[in-house]
Each structure stands twice: as C-alpha cells, then as structure tokens.
C-alpha cells in the first residue's frame, strides 16, 4: 500500500529523522560510525546528494531504530520506504 506523500514530504521526513537521531547520542554515534562522517560534518553533508536518502536507509536498516522514531512521532513506518523512493538518490523501485 502506498502512502500519499510527495517530494516535499519525503524531504521533511528525512530532515526530521536526521534531527531526531542528532538529538539522541546513542543513535548519533551509530549513524556517524556507519557513515564515516564526524558530527561537525553533518550540516555540510546534509546538502550533499544521497545524504538524506542515507538517513532514511539508516532507519530502514534497523527496525528497532525505525520503530523508536515512529513511536515517538506517530509516523507510519511504511512512509519511510515511499520517501526513500521519492528522494533523488534513493532506491528507484519499479511499480
């Protein structure tokens, strides 16, 4: 089932997800370790193509983290897949 979101919604979800993980030292540490960037590089990296899809992939790659975000924000987990598909550099799935 597809959610009715657009590119702006997908960007907003990715940015909000980044803010959420940046506010949690445990999530941030794991994210930085997986991406290989440092905390002071996040702001610059956020403007790079592929970074925001990478944030969504971080959540999708670890269900407890995804559910933690979704439970805290009332977000449907399925929105993450659709947002990833919409973002430039995200997964291009055939329908």
Could you explain the architecture of this structure?
This protein has helices at residues 7-22, 25-35, 42-45, 51-60, 63-73, 78-86. It is mostly helical and 95 residues long. The chain has one domain (7-86). Helix 1 (7-22) packs across helix 4. The longest helix has 16 residues, at 7-22. This is DUF3572 domain-containing protein. It holds the Pfam family DUF3572. It comes from Phyllobacterium sophorae.
How are the secondary structure elements laid out?
Elements: H1 7-22, H2 25-35, H3 42-45, H4 51-60, H5 63-73, H6 78-86
Protein name: DUF3572 domain-containing protein
InterPro entries: DUF3572
Number of helices: 6
Mean pLDDT, to the nearest integer, reads: 89
Residue runs with pLDDT of under 50 for 5 or more positions = none
Q: Indicate the radius of gyration in whole angstroms.
A: 13 Å
What composes the largest sheet? none
Order of helices and strands: HHHHHH
Backbone structural class: mainly alpha
Work out the strand percent.
under 5%
Shape: globular
Q: In total, how many beta strands?
A: 0
Helical content stands at: 55-70%
First-residue to last-residue Cα separation: 11 Å
Number of domains: 1
Protein name: DUF3572 domain-containing protein
InterPro entries: DUF3572
Organism: Phyllobacterium sophorae
Concise overview:
The chain has helices at residues 7-22, 25-35, 42-45, 51-60, 63-73, 78-86. The protein has 95 residues and is mainly α.
């Amino acid at each position: 089932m597809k959610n009715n979101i657009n590119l702006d919604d997908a960007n907003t979800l990715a940015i909000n997800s980044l803010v959420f993980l940046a506010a949690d030292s445990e999530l941030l540490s794991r994210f930085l370790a997986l991406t290989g960037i440092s905390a002071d590089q996040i702001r610059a990296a956020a403007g790079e193509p592929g970074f925001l899809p990478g944030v969504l992939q971080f959540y999708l790659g670890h269900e407890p983290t995804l559910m933690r975000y979704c439970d805290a924000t009332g977000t449907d987990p399925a929105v993450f897949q659709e947002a990833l598909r919409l973002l430039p550099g995200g997964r291009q799935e055939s329908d």
